[in-house]
Structures are given as structure tokens and as C-alpha cells.
Design goal:
The protein is of the alpha/beta class. Strand 5, helix 6 and strand 6 form a beta-alpha-beta unit. It has two domains: about 200 residues, Alpha-Beta Barrel (TIM Barrel); about 130 residues, Lyase, Ornithine Decarboxylase, Chain A, domain 1. The structure holds pyridoxal-5'-phosphate. Pyridoxal-5'-phosphate binds next to loops. It catalyses: L-alanine = D-alanine. Keywords: Isomerase, Pyridoxal phosphate.
Length: about 350
């Protein structure tokens, strides 16, 4: 028998969350962002839930190929554009739209041999300082692109650094608007936080994390607040029970010490499954759908949970590390991420290869 650990991808929840994003930007077309293997969900596993999107946005040409292999004929956008000249051939072959964020990419287009002009998304750096042309150089980049026979429609794109926080999007939006106002073409600006928090629309919006059921602005707001449902559940079983007396300790480093007698469950999930080792004692879990907490250090293959208040629980009980329990109770992944000092993005992406995954219709 395989280890009793399993991840579940919730197809309905993906579709629901995609609709929530649509609801906040009703006039926009929606890219479902499926980079990083659909935020760790698996592109093939997430596809059924996301096929209602207007397009798929990602970074990796191999992932674009996988989306085409699933039969998707609609738009696919490469969010970082091409990395080398021959990628443009694949763009032609797979009919990919691609971001142009630097002069080198324009150079590559200029020498690309094709009869079919490509649709590009010209990216402006409005303050994130990651990718994109400086506002002052944007127009000349556009003019250069616009003169190329290899280029079809040119759309405009930027990415926000603070859509999830107090600084917001106004400053970057003003820069973007000022430098694109009189240029023709569609626009795409919003990630999940900009869609949900700022109801900021454009021709295309680009929600990622919200589609996967995590609040982009946790802890200011929760996934439940935004009406988002978990799309990934990580569950494992209790494989041993220990009874402790006052002074007994749990796990490596004896970091947890019992105050009095208590029962603990040892769960078949550890950091080698993608559960963060840094999660301290007290990180929330559900045991058979009831609230509990972790105790002591997370080890490679196991972690311990408190069963003291759960007399019915024991060997064979199902522990929900994040996601939805059988009784419908939810352990928000955002709460686990917060305990680990990180974001749900990282936890989802770090789900380990060795965890078996099932797709729930
Ligand atoms: C990842 C990414 C997104 C999606 O961001 P979320 O915060 O997950 O919604 C949108 N646009 C670009 C350019 C990205 O790289």
C-alpha cells in the first residue's frame, strides 16, 4: 500500500473561482494564469476546471505545448515572451501570443522568418522593475515593433507591485495610462489582487492565485471573504498514536513539551511532501474535519498533531493539512502559509512529486 497521503484537485472549485474573477471584471476577457504547472496543481489536472477561461497565460514553452496537447485552440500568452530566437518558430507553430519586454526580443522578431505575423504584448515597467520598457522608452519600442512585418497586433501590458497592499495600483496605473493613451491596441494590467481589491478591469485580466482559491491579500482578507474555494486539498492519515505525560516531548529537538497528559497523532506527511518544515507548533490542521494543531517539528515524512480534545480520533483518522475535509470544513492554505512566513503560492508550487494526486470532478 502506498503511504496514506493524497492531494486532491477540485475541478468545480477552479471553475467557481474563475467565475468569481469574472464577476469582478465582467467586461474583461480572462486569462487563467497556469504558469508553474498551474501553481503546482498540474496543467492537465487543472484544465477541466479552467477551460471556461478566454485564454491561458504561462511562461514556459513546454507548458504551452501541453496546453495545446489538451486540445486548447484559444489564446495562449507567454508572460515573459521568448528567450531565444528559435522560440519564435514555436510561437508560430503553436500560435502563441508573446510578451515583448526588452530590445533583444524586438531584435529577434526583426530577423524572424515567417509569413504569419505574430501578436505581441508590449510590456511597460511602471514601477515593479522586473520586466518591461521604461515609460520613456515605451513609445519608441512600440514604433519599432509596429514597423515590423513579423508583428501583427500590439497590445499593452504592465504588472503591479502593490495591488495586494496599501500602496495600491493608482501610481502605476497613471504612468501606464499616460504613456499608452493615444496608442491603439488592447490592454492587460490586472493580477488577482488588482481584480479583486481594485475591481480594475482592462481588455484582458490575468488572475492566478485567486483562481487557485487563495486570497491575494491575506491576512487583510480571507479566501472566504472573496468567495473563493480551495482547489487543492492535502490530506494524510494518522499512522500512530502516542500518549504523553507532563514533561514528555515531541519530535526532533524536543521542541514541544507536554504540560500534562495528552494524546498525539503521528501523520504521514512531512516536508518531503511539501509541508513546510518551518511551520511551528500550533499550525492549524483539521483532524477528521475538526480543528486541531501541529505539535513539535515537522520531519521529512511525518508530523504530529494534537488529539487531546478529539477522543474519537486515532489511528486512521484523516488529517487535512490544507483544503477541504470530508465534512466540508476548510483549512485555508493561507493560514498554513502565514505560519510558514510565506504565501499560498509557494506551498502550492512546492507540493512534492511523491504525493499522489487525484482529480475530483
Ligand atoms: C503570475 C502573474 C500573474 C498572476 O498573478 P496572481 O498574483 O497569481 O494573480 C499575472 N501577471 C503576470 C505578469 C504574472 O507573472
Amino acid at each position: 500500500m502506498p503511504r496514506p497521503i493524497q492531494a486532491t484537485i477540485h475541478t468545480q472549485a477552479l471553475a467557481h473561482n474563475l467565475n468569481q474573477a469574472r464577476h469582478h471584471a465582467p467586461d474583461a476577457r480572462v486569462w487563467a494564469v497556469v504558469k508553474a504547472n498551474a501553481y503546482g496543481h498540474g496543467i492537465e489536472r487543472a484544465f477541466a476546471g479552467l477551460r471556461g477561461a478566454d485564454g491561458f497565460a504561462l511562461l514556459d514553452l513546454a507548458e504551452a505545448q501541453r496546453v495545446r496537447d489538451l486540445g486548447w485552440r484559444g489564446p495562449i500568452l507567454l508572460l515573459e515572451g521568448v528567450f531565444e530566437q528559435r522560440d519564435l518558430e514555436l510561437c508560430s507553430r503553436l500560435d502563441l501570443w508573446h510578451t515583448v519586454h526588452c530590445d533583444q526580443q524586438i531584435d529577434m522578431l526583426a530577423t524572424h522568418k515567417t509569413n504569419v505575423p505574430q501578436r505581441v504584448f508590449l510590456k511597460m515597467n511602471t514601477g515593479m522593475n522586473r520586466l518591461g520598457f521604461a515609460p520613456g522608452q515605451y513609445r519608441s519600442a512600440w514604433t519599432r515593433l509596429n514597423a515590423l512585418p513579423q508583428v501583427d497586433e500590439i497590445s499593452h501590458m504592465t504588472h503591479f507591485s502593490d495591488a495586494d497592499g496599501p500602496a495600491g495600483v493608482a501610481r502605476q496605473m497613471a504612468v501606464f495610462d499616460a504613456h499608452t493613451a493615444d496608442l491603439p491596441g488592447e490592454r492587460t494590467v490586472s493580477n488577482s489582487a488588482a481584480v479583486l481589491r481594485h475591481s480594475l478591469s482592462s481588455d484582458w485580466v490575468r488572475p492566478g492565485i485567486a483562481v487557485y482559491g487563495s486570497a491575494p491579500d491575506h491576512p487583510a482578507n480571507t479566501a472566504a471573504h472573496w468567495g473563493l474555494q480551495p482547489t487543492m486539498t492535502l490530506q494524510a492519515k494518522v499512522i500512530a498514536v502516542q500518549t504523553l505525560q507532563a514533561g514528555d516531548t515531541v519530535g526532533y529537538g524536543s521542541s514541544y513539551r507536554a504540560d500534562g497528559s495528552m494524546r498525539i497523532g503521528v501523520v504521514a506527511c512531512g516536508y518531503a511532501d511539501g509541508y513546510p518544515r518551518i511551520c511551528p507548533t500550533g499550525t492549524p490542521v483539521l483532524v477528521d474535519g475538526a480543528k486541531s494543531r501541529t505539535l513539535g517539528r515537522v520531519s521529512m515524512d511525518m508530523l504530529s498533531v494534537d488529539l487531546s480534545a478529539l477522543p474519537e480520533a486515532g489511528q486512521g483518522s484523516t488529517v487535512t493539512l490544507w483544503g477541504r475535509a470530508a465534512n466540508g470544513a476548510v483549512q485555508p492554505i493561507d493560514e498554513v502559509a502565514a505560519q510558514a512566513g510565506t504565501l499560498a503560492y509557494e506551498l502550492m508550487c512546492a507540493l512534492a512529486q511523491r504525493v499522489p494526486v487525484v482529480v475530483e470532478p
